[in-house]
Design a protein that fits this description.
alpha+beta; 6-stranded mixed sheet; 7 helices
Length: 418
């Protein structure tokens, strides 16, 4: 039986113990190499600590270790006999919320930490909102530092009730609440002896058992063209292939396809992968597709199954997470990067900004500043083949970029096309 892979992200406010939780998860699951543990023990002794500081397993930047906070997204890879894991440990400070967007954009599960002493705070709500907007299907609420509230069940129950109510308003599909003490190891990998009132899974047990993934056949085929291959050698004189990573769905030789934005229709003649011809390929494999007809295709075009091709549009309605220090304003000229295609665009409207406290909408804010979440209407100079984000996280997402210096301004999730 093949072992599947779970991509998950962690998030939480500063000092909630997120890096310690990740370190405990790696340490107790025996996913730490001897030299890594030795380096952490050495660094901990230099800081006057008797026991190894497990947070140092993920806080790798010098600035992170000096300040005791996570700044950049730290990716870790580990495995148990039941599943492989790709973990994105994201920053908790409000200044680095943009990094949480990066880490959660491809995650199938998000672990949101809360300090049991502080409960749900604004940054907790922000992380829940980002996870919901990015359509992360599974969210785990880890109520940490239960040892500092004497492992009191009422404290955990109150926090879990408040967070669940908020997440339900955001329409988070699945929420699992787990009381933990990352420092002591309670309910991270091993069940806690101090919380016999809790009968649910540990964090690792849930990560190993949660249902993830989807059948490629359930999604429409999408291949953003990354490169056109024309060897023009004696051996491959007439070879013309279109290389890219399959963003979603399954493609078969003989399938009718539409090339967008031109709208021309043809048939898949052959699929090449790793130097060999194959009859079928599926997401997220990287392939080279050969087509029956000589259509003008270049980087940025989209090859889609003819029976389920997306609409082509120049008007995009989307929810965006603003990630730049400079504001995004109405009338601003930007670049819109969608899969392998980048086009000029203008921000026509900013209809609303989300208020995280009560999930109300602030109408016509005029601009979005760092870490704001709001709705925008964008008009592009060239047509785009765009799905809604609800249909596809890959082909329904895009970036807004400053055309002057290339700074990423916002991460967008399309929810409507004109």
């Amino acid at each position: 039986m093949a072992i599947d892979t779970l991509r998950f992200a962690t998030a939480g406010s500063v000092d909630d113990g997120k890096s310690t939780l990740v370190g405990r998860l790696l340490f107790d699951s025996k996913s730490v190499l001897a030299d890594q543990l030795e380096a952490v023990e050495h660094a901990s002794r230099n800081r006057g600590q008797e026991a190894p500081d497990l947070a140092l397993l993920t806080d790798g930047l010098r600035a992170e270790r000096e300040q005791g906070i996570t700044i950049d997204v730290a990716y870790r890879y580990f495995a148990t006999p039941r599943r492989r894991f790709i973990l994105a440990d994201t920053p908790g400070h409000v200044q680095y919320t943009r990094n949480m967007v990066t880490g959660a954009s491809t995650a199938e599960l998000a672990v949101v930490l809360v300090d049991a002493r502080n409960g749900v705070v604004e940054q907790t709500r922000r992380h829940a909102a980002v996870a919901a907007l990015l359509r992360v299907p599974h969210v785990v609420l880890a109520v940490n530092k239960m040892d500092l509230v004497e492992y009191a069940e009422p404290v955990f129950a109150a926090i879990a009730k408040e967070f669940t109510a908020y997440a339900n308003e955001l329409r988070v599909p699945e929420i699992t609440s787990i009381p933990v003490s990352a420092l002591a190891g309670d309910n991270v990998v091993e069940p806690s002896r101090n919380m016999d009132w809790y009968g649910g899974p540990t964090v690792l047990e849930h990560l190993e058992s949660v249902s993830v993934g989807h059948r490629p056949d359930d999604e429409p085929a999408r291949i953003p063209v990354q490169y056109v291959i024309r060897p023009q050698t004696a051996e491959h004189r007439d070879y013309r292939g279109y290389a890219g990573q399959i963003a979603s769905g399954t493609l078969h030789v003989g399938d009718p396809v539409t090339v967008l934005p031109s709208g021309r229709t043809t048939t898949v003649e052959a699929i090449d992968m790793l130097g060999k011809a194959v009859d079928t390929a599926w997401a997220p494999q990287s392939v080279t597709v050969r087509l029956c007809d000589g259509i003008d295709i270049s980087r940025g075009d989209l090859i889609a199954h003819a029976h389920s091709a997306p609409a082509v549009t120049r008007e995009v309605s989307a929810i965006v997470c603003h990630v730049a220090d400079r504001p995004l304003t109405v009338g601003q000229r930007v670049l819109l990067k969608h899969t392998t295609r980048t086009v000029k665009a203008i921000v026509e409207e900013i209809p609303s900004r989300l208020t995280l406290e009560d999930l109300s909408q602030h109408a016509d804010p005029g601009q979005l500043t760092a870490n704001d979440i709001g709705r925008v209407l964008v008009r592009t100079a060239e047509p785009l083949a765009l799905d809604t984000y609800a249909e596809s996280r890959r082909t329904g997402s895009f970036l807004l970029i400053d055309p002057i210096d290339g700074t990423t301004l916002a991460a967008g999730m399309a929810d409507g096309i004109g």
